[in-house]
Input
Amino acid sequence: MGTYFKAIDRFAAALTRRVIANRWLVIIGAVLIAGALGSGASKLEFSTNYRVFFSEANPELQAFEELQNTYTKNDNFFFVVESASGEAFDRDTMAAVEELTEAAWQIPYTIRVDSVSNFQHTYATEDDLIVEDLVRDAEGRDAGFLEERRDVALAEPLLRNQILTANGDVTAINVVLQYPEKAFTEVPEAVEFARGLRTDIEAKYPQLTIHLTGVSMLNNAFAETGMADGATLMPLMFGVIFLLTWLIIRSLTATFSTLLVIGLSTMVAMGTAGFFGVKLTPIAMSAPIVILTLAVADSIHILMSLRSLMREGLGKHEALIEAVRINFLPVTITSLTTIVGFLSLNFSDSPPYWHLGNITAVGIFAAWIFSVTVLPAAISVLPYRVKEKQGTEWSVRTMDRLSEFVIRRYRGLLVGVGLPTLALIAFIPTLDFNDQWVEYFDERIEFRVDSDQAMNHFGLYPIEYSIPANGPGGISEPEYLANLERLTDFMREQELVTHVYSLSDIMKRLNRNMHADDDGFYRIPANRELSAQYLLLYELSLPYGLDLNDRINVDKSATRVTATIEQATSAETKAFFNDVDAFMQENLPSYMHAKPTSAAVMFTYISERNMQNMVVGTILAIAAIALIMMFSLRSVRLGTLSLIPNGLPILTTFGAWALLVGEVGFSVATVASISLGIIVDDTVHWLSKYVRARDERNLSVEDSIRYAFRNVGMAIVVNTIILAAGFFVMTTSAFKMNVDLGLMTILSIVGALILDFLFLPALLLFGRNKEQPEIAGDTKLLPSTA
Amino acid sequence: MNCTRVMILTLVAAVLLGTAGAVFAADDTQGFDIAARSDRTDLGFGDSDVELQMVLRNAAGQESTRALRIATLEKPDETVGDKSLVVFDTPRDIEGTALLSHAKILDPDDQWLYLPALKRVKRISSSNKSGPFVGSEFAFEDFTAIELNKFDYTYVGEVACGDLTCDVLERTPRYENSGYTKQVSWVDQTDYQIRKVEFYDRRGDLLKVLELKDYRNYKGIWRAHTLSMSNVQTNKQTDLIYGDYTFNTGLAENDFVKGRLSRLR
Output
């Protein structure tokens, strides 16, 4: 097997010689290939639909699509109108609401507009059923009329706390849209119009403040946040890398060559994504940041070797060949493990994470190729000199001190590092999943600010139930309606619930209207025929766009009940679902049982769905990486041992997060596989040097630890700093999932450094006696390079 | 000198305006003439009676059927609307419910509904009845006799429609509270019947497409027997499938009064 690795060595050296001989061809060829692949980036578009976060197979998505096909689509704009007068029903505010209601029909793809002004008010006059807009021509009305209509609105369960606050101070206009879903410009087009409307109305009625939110604004926020991140994070990232590379290598040539390598790698990755038709999201947009961060590591390893080789007196070309030769295998292995980690993101339930994983995998692959071709070619073309230094560097001295400390205190370290690690891991069960889409965005994003304001007055998270009746027309059965009323009442009693929209309220109102507005008849009609015929009469009286087709299915065998809930954690939301479910089991006939659905429900379960899928993905990734470690270290025992410094940092990260933050969004599911591929690099570098010392130099465990620290310790520290800096840039994203992912990755990288430096050597020392007899067996398998 | 120039300019302007006016006027009349010619093929049917099935389909593919009868009394005067009576046969819980309608040209129609469960007639007092008819994709105004003078017409052009050639007309409602900003109708040049209508919502976007098929001739009076309305925005669809028409069944004015509603069965 040793010959096998020597063959790789020879290949790497020969490759670099060829590269240097044909350096211009390599550079121009790489730029052309990257340019050709990179041209695909022009095909990239930002997704403007939150549904992109859910795979086709997601059961909550399927249930919601079914509901929307049965009734109507649920995309909306929600305008919250606040008047300085503190009274929604003053003449000016009503005039503005009327105007906004009318104008909202002009928003592209609008199919329905609901407000206090166009609410279909019904009342009886002799044998007439009068159906009219609740407020029309507000400007020409006297205060008495407005006050009367205000009382009607406040008493109306369909309006109170949904379209009008219970004290009548703030009102809202809900606009329902149905997008053809043919172009990504649809949502931005509608949003631009809606924003224009808000600006116009605010200008005309200066006493008003209008907050604009709703699912369409959410969808738009995903695209806007991704674009904002792209505009701020990318330049910042390039700046950070430029600075770090220059600080570490102190050479403009090296810095420029590194930027060329990582720039080309990112182009290839994003271009390939474009050719595959990837729809960009803020999550997929973090791929270039990750690629830049990880790609720079390959170059840094080669450049650091190059520098020390040149300091030892080698000429530039010889040093280049040697630097690539000794780094070829570690760079290959670390690239491979990182690619495996990112590819395992394909197990996620959320397509944006597939995109992040695949784009990054392509980028890492490109960075691997370019690091061993373009980098040496560029360095050989450009002027590059290294000042020879005298004496041992402070970095070597620091590492020597560290290794002595570890060797002397290994028993204490085993306990001192091991116990806190176990303690942190014990906190993992306290971690709560929490996904609230409003909080995905930070306060720099308009959607977050407007939604926060809107939530001061109204709930924003609708939960839909399609409640089946007993067969076609069954919704008119008194039993069904009575049960529906009980369910509605139960939901209204729940603390989270701000509003419930239910057919039972409409039926009670119609029954009263049909009996000369006698309040004694404000109840469910006595028989099925009455209800069916009232409904027929009511439907014949409604204007375009305000029908009941979004509430009752075609054969009148089910109606839709919408409970709107206020800001609540996923756990509270699930508790509400369970309460409703228990109520149904106990109080409703079985044909009426229904499951909740809606975008809010989908997000409530998104963490669990991703967690379930990612557990498999992560286990497979761990297994694959352990195999790669065993193969590269030529030792089953050390490969297995490497699981500890590879696996523990991730677990401690979750524990630390549980302790410090307490809750996570669905990005947590992906942290493990992303971190794993990255932190394993440190272990590869450290252990491969340790093994080389034990094998090639036949050193003792202690001396091998000293050797490993001295030769690769500083490179690992530098690597950790670069990675931490890169993921720190990610934490400046306006998208919380990226911030969390960045922070958790930093935690696990730093944790990995601590464990690799303090715990892994302690373990090796602890097990050294048992290790002695085996070492002979292992020796034959040791690689000659690593 | 100056004066002459002004006169010449005025003259040119007048000629231009005049020509333009004449062109528009010609178009207007042509559109109206075609619509009128189509409307008048219906003239003299007297009264009719027909049974039909209304089949509703939502985007999920679920279906529901209602059965109804429509009796119509012709008002030959084009400035007065026809009278109609719709009686529901199924679903059973609305059996016997009857809608009496006196169409108006520009004012909202007068409508009364008899509710057998309540044994009362209720007048539908809503100025805006542009909503869907019993949950279907049809508004009441879409499938009852279309009154010529409810619209202004513009001639658009002619296109092939199936085996026939159609004149395409754009018609804009002259009455208030329509759900539509405009409709585009296809009238064939052979039998002068409406083959297709597109409905545009208040934003001016295409909302629904109505196809009128299976035309049959009853001694000179044409009737379509399948009306398919597709909502292109919500992907819902409603078909009206008519049985055979009977004409001149002896219906009279006093069959179309409120008082008769409760004695229909």
